[in-house]
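Notes taken during the Thursday session

The instructor put the following on the board and asked us to keep it in front of us for the whole hour. The protein is Sugar diacid utilization regulator. We were told not to look anything up and to reason only from what is written here. First, the residues (374 in total):
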Amino acid sequence: MEVSPTLAQEIVTDMKGIINQDLNFIDTRGIVIASTNIERINTDHEGARKVLATKMDLIIERDEQFKGARKGINIPIYFENNIVGVIGITGEKEEVTKFGQIIKKMTEILVKDAWLKNLTIQRRENNRMIVDYLLFQPESEQSKTNINKLFEVDLNKPRIIIIGKFVKKVQSSHHLVDRLNSIFEKYVLFNQENFFTIKGDEIILILDHRFENDMERTLNHITKETKENLGIELSFGIGSSTIHTRSIKQSYQQAKSAINWANSTNNQRINYFKDLDIGLILNRVSTTSKQYYVDKVLSNLCPKELREYGQMIEVYGKNNGSINKTAEELFIHKNTLQYKLNKLAKLTEYNPRILNDYVILRIAFLLIKKDVGW
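Then, after some discussion, the predicted structure tokens were revealed:
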């Protein structure tokens, strides 16, 4: 690893704040690339070159004992058993030697942390590029070959496409995106054939098809952790398993349909495209047409009635029109249910006991479920 001047300057500045001594960071060429004394930056340091050659600490007892060096201590800095530079502490021997090993360990920790951070950034960028190629770029055999070689992945493997979205609108920030990335990386990137990225309001996952058996369990872990640690609820749409790269874009659109329908109806957190029924059609209806339909059917209901009758119609349909079972599930008397069904028919001019009218009412309530809530 090569320590950048920016990182080196951060290190010496932070260390001076702790020990109140001037410090220098010298690279593997023996050049000062960072210093708390700006005049020493980009100068040669023969003392550091000796440290690089001997791999041992060097105490310099007087200025210019080595060309470009001042009295103090110079210590080799290691990363994964390789010297990546030398840190020098300027001052009297008695003052600086007591700080030597502490500064060495702290510097090596900061270097490793920076390396891990850069590794994470690079991994996220690689994932972004792969997802972008698979979903948003024109397909070509040459591009596929380049991606395969560059990232050492097999893009021809069957995959599963998942889209995650926030259940409620969230104010995005760099910190939030970083935390989300960390959570998904923990559960998804154990397999180098899995990719994911956060693009706009979508969390896009492209997973090895062998992940399918553990998929729901993993997504439940993710939703639990994001809710507990970030206070955010997620829902997911899952497309069909793909056989080749040509069907990945289609699977992405399927996952998009599943998540959009789930979010518009306030449905369950994990949603499969293959399980969509009426949502396949309603998902494609324009917002204007939906609003016109809802106004036409439900305009005589107030917000409280919309919630009350929406829940009633949902439970009534789930119980196949059984008065007894519906009343039992709603915790009301069956006569009260009968009264409410009659009142809804009077208010809307659609009788829920008639199959055709029930379907009209059910669709209208589905279209407003998320906005009204029940």
